[in-house]
Amino acid sequence: MRENTTRSAVLPVAPTRGRLRPLGLDEVRITGGFWARRRHINASATLGHCRDWMERVGWIGNFGAAAEGRIHRDRRGREFTDADVYKLLEAMAWQAGHGAAGSLDAEIAALTAVIAPAQEPDGYLNTAFGRPGQQPRYSDLEWGHELYCYGYLIQAGVAQTRARGEGELAKIARRAADHVCAGFGPGGIEGVCGHPQIETALVELARLTGEQRYLDQAALFVDRRGHGTLADSEFGRAYYQDDLPVRRATVLRGHAVRALYLAAGAVDVAVETGDDALLAAVVRQWEATVARRTYLTGGMGSHHRDESFGDDFVLPPDRAYAETCAGVASVMLSWRLLLATGEPRFADLAERTLFNVVATSPSEDGRAFFYANTLHRRRLGTPPRADAESPRAESSLRAPWFAVSCCPTNVARTLAQLPAYLATADDHGVQLHQYADAEIATCLAGGHRVALRIRTDYPYGGNVAVRIDRSPDRPWTLSLRVPAWTAGATAWLADPDGARRAVAPGTAEVTRTFRPGDDIRLELPVAPLWISADPRIDAVRGTAAVQRGPLVYCAESVDLPGGHEVDAIRVDPSAEPVDGPGGNGGTVVLAGELATHAEERDAAWPYQPLARPPAATADRTGIVLVPYHSWANRGPSTMRVWLPTAEPDRPAEPDHFAVPGRPADSDNTATGR
Questions:
Q1: Is the pTM of this model over 0.90?
Q2: How many other β-carbons are positioned within 10 Å of the β-carbon of residue 54?
Q3: Long-range contact list for 577-585, CB < 8 A, 24+ apart?
Q4: Which residue among 17, 361, 594, 615 is least enclosed by CB atoms within 10 Å?
Q5: What's the whole-number mean pLDDT along residues 455-480?
């Protein structure tokens, strides 16, 4: 890995080494389009919504109760609610880093003033443990989340320092980090937290301060994981990744958010210590997880009971958990792997997850959220009350708040820092990874300044125009990611001379001495297309889905005639899907039918011989699909992404089941181990 000379100070992730150098919030500004709208709503509605709810349910008040000695009787919320207050502070700090000062700075100061008195003289800070009438400190590492909460506190302190300069919040975070190093370092408690998160935070604090002890402690936590230091649980030690050391694991497993956070922390440690073997281990885990345990949307986690990954190819759409926080964590991991390796496949997954998980969670007004992201909703359900917390079990409908509200604040902090995920630089030039209307200004090697503007109709259109506003009088390279979803079609790149060439999925480059006013255009083949699944994903055999550009589409019952539900849909994959009215990707129309089985309600036994299927009537119609991220914004509805085909299932050829690299007639059961 090469050394990074980080020029931006306003960076959520600031590795000192790696293939690519990230650009900060002071170098990239999103100016319009899909993400600008969502970021505006995040700043104007979601941040205040989260703060108001945490005041209403008492999570902010817990700090005052702790400082005043009444926490044992007055504490409200789950043991990890401190973390959500810290996530809100982090989101506010990054948002303030865009120049939105004044009121946000005042809110950060006010919340910090509530938190500060609850910190103990030795740096300990938690409202659920450690005081009279509560369990002792660190008496429940499996479920207590004390170190997890510190992780978000430290991240908030780092965000404040990088965005606004060191303040009281950063000092509180630093004292907490020192407490962790003293208590869990060599000779201290030889344990880990049941929920990883402290690892990434300590590495980022080490990057900010230059203090080696924070990096050493993060590395110690990564190396301790997987040696059975945590007590076994009803879900097994794999639930919190304590079954195998990180270096020996071959796939992400257990609780999806925990697994992804741990992997992100391991990448951070690997990058800063030059541990190529550790980095390679995480890359292998990512590869196996993407190939076998990830939904079409990019969602991860198929088990509701323990919020975990299932076995290989166990990806039921109607039971998809695909927690929003797992989507956020997946983006965190993909971004770190991209910076470390420069490989565009990591940006491909980040794009898929951002558009189809992160963007799906908040409602159009930014005041209600999905906790889980199912791919098939069978019943309408009852809309959550606007004035009450919702249990997670009801999270297949957007709710204003949850008893466990980790997701709203995680979305808020992700959207606040989103410009930092768009572009990078290296010694040779600038790389564009995510497409949005944006302005970029940075320095290349040697202090040469470049500035460029991006205009695009992405994600509904595939036109990306880059205009050079400033450039040194020497050659440099502009690189543009050509998404993996363009495979099978043709993408085109036009350089400033007007020369137009086809480009393949991966990276397209233009190297020249640019002049102000030069234009580079990328044309991506955005059109709806059918998607089929690996036949080993049993739950979606005999179905097909539709993707258009980076967006996954779904059918909603509100678009079906005659009171039909989405389970009545049968589609015809022999007819290509087409854009609906307007042709801008707002809807996609399929050839299909709405089938009604005559025996559907009266059969006493749901299984019949294939030779005698239930009689059916079918109405030929155009099936309308909408972008998955927009579903349930028009009221309660049923929904599905994977649509049954009109053709009956056909047995797959034996070699369809062969594992790559293994003969077709051998034992080819995929285990991911």
A1: yes
A2: 23
A3: 577/528, 577/529, 577/530, 577/546, 577/548, 577/625, 578/528, 579/527, 579/528, 579/548, 580/624, 584/457, 584/460, 584/461, 585/459, 585/460, 585/461, 585/526, 585/548, 585/549, 585/551, 585/627
A4: 615
A5: 97
Residue 403 CA from chain centroid, whole number: 21
- Residue 353 three-state SS: helix
Q: How far apart are CA 340 and CA 21, in angstroms?
A: 9
**Contact assessment for residue 32 and residue 13, using Cβ atoms and an 8 Å cutoff:** no
| Nearby residues of 158 by Cβ (< 8 Å), 6 or more positions away | 170, 173, 201, 204, 205, 208
- Which of the listed CATH numbers 1.10.287, 2.60.40, 2.120.10, 3.40.50 matches domain 423-523? 2.60.40
Stretch 355-378: mean pLDDT, rounded? 96
Report residue 26 as tokens.
């002071």
Confidence at residue 615, expressed as pLDDT on a 0 to 100 scale:
45
Question: Do residues 642 and 545 lie in contact, with contact meaning Cβ atoms separated by under 8 Å?
Answer: yes
- Block residue for tokens 């940075």: 442
Q: What is the mean pLDDT of the chain?
A: 91
Closest CA to 129 of 75, 174, 84: 75
Tokens of 466: 């880059």
The pairing of strands 476-482 and 429-432 is parallel
| Cis peptide upstream of residue 459 (ω within 30 degrees of 0) | yes
Burial of 574 (0-12, 13-18, 19+ CB in 10 A): exposed
Alpha-carbon distances of 326 from 74, 252, 298, 416, rounded to whole Å: 31, 12, 10, 18
Report the alpha-carbon distance of residue 597 to residue 340 in Å, rounded. 54
Copy the structure tokens of residue 64.
Answer: 């005052």
Q: What is the CA radius of gyration of the chain?
A: 25
Show the tokens assigned to 471.
Answer: 């450039």
Q: Which residues contact 78 (CB under 8 A, 6 or more apart)?
A: 403, 404
Handedness of CA 639, 640, 644, 645 (dihedral sign): positive
| Spatial contact of 510 and 495, defined as CB atoms under 8 Å apart | yes
The single-letter DSSP state of residue 497 is: T
What residues have CB less than 8 Å from 240, skipping those under 6 apart?
142, 194, 195, 196, 230, 233, 254, 255, 258
pLDDT score, position 603: 55
Residue-level pLDDT at 500: 96
Domain ranges of the chain: 57-230, 245-411, 423-523, 531-601+612-657
